[in-house]
Amino acid sequence: MEDAEKGSQERLDSAPEVGEDAVTSVGPSPPPPPAITEEERQELQEELDKVEDEIQTLSQVLAAKEKQLADIKRKLGVTALNELKQNITKTWQEVTTSIAYRRTSETLSQASLKATAAFSNMGSAISRKLEDVRNAPTFKSFEDKVETLKTKMTPSTSDPVDEEREDPPAAESEGSPLHEEPMD
User: Fold this and answer.
1) For residue 25, which of 16, 13, 34 has the smallest C-alpha distance?
2) Over its length of 184 residues, how does the chain's per-residue pLDDT go in tens digits?
3) Torsion of CA 121, 122, 123, 129, to 10 degrees
4) What is the DSSP string of the chain?
5) Residues 117, 113: Cα–Cα separation, whole Å
6) 133, 139 in Cβ contact below 8 A?
7) Is the pTM of this model over 0.90?
8) Cβ proximity of 14 and 29 under 8 Å
9) Which CA distances in Å does 21 have to 17, 25, 27, 29, 180?
10) Distance from C-alpha of 60 to C-alpha of 52, rounded to nearest angstrom
11) Which residue, among 46, 76, 58, 65, has the nearest Cα to 19 in the 3D structure?
């Protein structure tokens, strides 16, 4: 029973402290190497305690400085959004002044000029070809035939006065309510 209590006591003692490595907290600590005397072990333990205290002190100082920084920023009106804007502006400035950005920008600019010239030349060539097709005898003949067909299909516009004088067709005049004959 005492062995079980002693084992649980050892596990409680070996719980990792703040800042302790995960490697050292995996299992029970190994016994000290046999080459270290009790006096050296005592000195190392004191040094360990001193370093842990320094770490804790530095953590507290850092927390206090971070709080002081936040207070100063608040008093100056510096918000997280303003900081983000400044960081983005600074980063963009660094990117645009980089050699890689300038080379890429120059290359894209040259490619754009060449593409613009190529499209312009292509547009001119297409326009010339379409004009050549339009002036070709085959297209002229086709155009004339379409115009003739259009003329035949479109009703001719006549004088509206003539339309009023025309007699209605015979089928419509008989039995039509407009042209009823009196009944005897």
Assistant:
1) 16
2) 445 544 544 444 455 555 555 555 566 676 656 688 999 999 999 999 999 999 999 999 999 999 999 999 889 888 888 889 989 999 999 988 999 989 999 999 999 999 999 988 898 899 988 888 888 888 778 888 888 888 888 876 655 555 555 555 554 444 444 545 555 4
3) 110
4) -HHHHHHHHHHHHTSPPTT--TTTTSSSPPPPPTTS-HHHHHHHHHHHHHHHHHHHHHHHHHHHHHHHHHHHHHHHT--HHHHHHHHHHHHHHHHHTSHHHHHHHHHHHHHHHHHHHHHHHHHHHHHHHHHHHHHSHHHHHHHHHHHHHHHHHSPPP--HHHHHHSPPPHHHHTT-GGGPPPP-
5) 6
6) yes
7) no
8) yes
9) 9, 7, 12, 12, 117
10) 12
11) 58
Length in residues, the chain: 184
Tokens standing for residue 120: 């312009």
> Would you state the structure tokens that stand for residue 8, as one six-digit string?
């649980």
For tokens 């490619």, the residue is 111
